[in-house]
């Protein structure tokens, strides 16, 4: 888990996205969170077996499409697919 967290942090810092805010939907309310909170959501709510896949896909998408929106759109799909089912407080990244 720590490896995934570090990989995600490095990915965001290298692209100077550390000051970006991300809009998330939680319990039917919109919230704006920072990069560290987004990373916490990804790591804490993604199945351990999927975490490396999330990071690998981030790199792959950026190399192919090279923009933040495409990266987040694909990350969102992976996040939903890999999210544990049955949690009472589910988070969704929204655009």
TrEMBL record:
It comes from the Bacteria. This is Uncharacterized protein. The lineage of its organism: Bacteria, Bacillati, Bacillota, Bacilli, Bacillales.
